[in-house]
Specification:
The complex is a heterodimer of chains A (about 160) and B (about 300). By secondary structure, chain A is of the alpha+beta class. Helices cover about 20% and strands about 25% of the residues of chain A. Chain A is globular. With about 300 residues, chain B is mainly β. Chain B has 3 helices and 14 strands. At the A-B interface, helix 1, strand 1 and helix 4 of A face strand 2, strand 3, strand 5, strand 7 and helix 3 of B.
């Protein structure tokens, strides 16, 4: 009888140990289908010893082959024309937020080239915009298709005499 | 599959006990010292879980392999019959590529597969089993078949992959997920992340052979078979059509979202489900050691035939 009780006690202990795995659960991360609401676009790097102003004009309501001209009137705050001031040897990251405000970058079609003009900040602040535009007083002008920007690793660098 | 498992289980019992019933009638007088009463086994070894996939072309089979560890207590009332209780854990691993090799055969080599992870698929079982055993000793050797029934908890890793048609690369790929233990409830938007595992009755049959070295200590080897009972399919298979996640609308999105060029997103309107079952049988080959705890009641000649 004593052996039967011992055996029964042993059985009870083993049974309770065996139930432990069933009390455990594993959480699997649910499948998500995230909507992309913001993304990194590019980095602008001023590799010079002077402060610069970078201007991205919007496409405008014109044919693509003539799009990208500098506006007649420049308003830094309107958001459509992107204006970036970058100190010497500094860079700026452009991140696009899906907030419904179309910046210049989003007005260009997939097959277009995105233009950018680099001015000296001293000229930008002292010379009237119409004169800057008429006399083409920019330090550099670049243009990138989608493929060219991806090949450049989304990095635009201004270097004097480049 | 459930009926096949039951039939195989019963046939294995018959194969084990039928020859022994004839042997038991002609006992030799070779009795192992310290051989009666309690015995403790510790064993470990090899586990294999066969599975089948019903594909578009045929039903194909595969096997997942791994290991087992086992502790067992046995008590022999006399020279032959006894009872036992055991606790075992089985784990089998299957590489995603090996699983998809079986899926590919089942689907007739029509698709290319992209698993969402190349991690192993694991099928694990922890079971507590009690039952009856018989022993036949011949010299230092002992043959010990057992049958038992118990309760266990099993777990199967979730696994998912994307499937692309070989003859039409532009055709929309399909995303397929296998998840064990989950159910769809109509009052929940999603049940993903529910408990992945279930408990079930487990049947066991096995034959162990031991070699006693000294009075108490023996080596053992065993082949066994576990059958997991299920009342309903318990693997949910979810399918979605996929569409490209790269749909830029302008220059900015074409550059900024370039990383998604080879990515897909779910078309949730195409969600569909089907059901299958976790593999139901598990085969084991173990080796181990044991200890005869009992006192040899044959010293007094109590069990010797006169």
């Amino acid at each position: 009888m004593k052996r039967i009780y011992s055996f029964a006690a042993f059985v009870a202990v083993l049974f309770s140990v065996a139930l432990l795995p069933s009390a455990c659960s594993s959480q699997i991360d649910p499948v998500t289908n995230p909507q992309v609401t913001e993304y990194y676009l590019m980095t602008l790097y001023n590799n010079s010893s002077i402060s610069t102003v970078w201007v991205f004009p919007e496409h405008g309501d014109v044919p693509c082959d003539v799009a990208g001209a500098l506006p007649d009137v420049l308003d830094e705050e309107d958001g459509a024309t992107v204006v970036c001031r970058i100190a010497p040897k500094r860079s700026v990251n452009i991140v696009i937020h899906d907030d419904g405000n179309d910046s210049a970058f989003e007005t260009y079609h997939i097959d277009d080239s995105l233009p950018v003009y680099v001015f000296a900040e001293e000229d930008f602040d002292s010379i009237p915009w119409s004169q800057l535009k008429a006399e083409k007083k920019w330090l550099a002008k670049y243009s990138f298709t989608v493929e060219e920007m991806i090949e450049a690793d989304q990095w635009i660098e201004y270097r004097p005499n480049s | 599959m459930k009926n096949v498992s039951t039939i195989v289980f019963l046939l294995s019992l018959l194969a084990v006990f039928a020859p022994l019933s004839a042997v038991g009638q002609s006992q030799s007088e070779n009795l192992q010292a310290y051989a009666y009463g309690s015995a403790i086994d510790l064993q470990g070894g090899f586990a294999a879980v066969p599975f089948i996939i019903k594909g578009e072309a045929r039903t194909a089979s595969g096997i997942s392999t791994g290991g087992e560890s086992l502790m067992r207590y046995s008590y022999y009332f006399g020279r032959h019959f006894g009872i036992f209780a055991s606790f075992s854990t089985d784990w089998t691993n299957l590489m995603g590529s090996d699983f998809l090799r079986t899926v590919n055969r089942a689907d007739g080599q029509k698709y290319k597969y992209d698993p969402n992870s190349y991690d192993y698929m694991n099928v694990n079982l922890a079971a507590f089993i009690v039952g009856a055993g018989y022993r036949y000793d011949f010299g230092q050797w002992s043959l010990r078949p057992r049958i038992g029934i118990g309760y266990g908890s099993y777990y199967m890793d979730a696994f998912s992959y994307n499937r692309f048609r070989r003859d039409d690369p532009n055709n929309k790929p399909v995303h397929i997920e296998y998840e064990a233990g989950s159910k769809d409830y109509d009052y929940l938007v999603s049940t993903k992340g529910e408990i992945n595992g279930q408990s079930s009755f487990v049947g066991f049959a096995g034959v162990q052979i031991t070699y006693t070295i000294r009075r108490h200590f023996y080596f053992s080897a065993e082949v066994g078979f576990k059958c997991i009972a299920r009342s309903e399919p318990n693997v949910i298979i979810r399918e979605y059509d996929l569409e490209s996640a790269y749909n830029p609308e302008n220059w900015s999105e074409a550059v900024g979202l370039n990383a998604y060029r080879d990515s897909f997103t779910y078309d949730r309107d195409t969600y569909r489900t089907s059901y299958s079952s976790v593999p139901a049988t598990m085969f084991n080959v173990n080796i181990g050691i044991g200890w005869n705890i009992g006192k040899n009641r044959n010293v007094t000649g109590k069990y010797l035939k006169k």
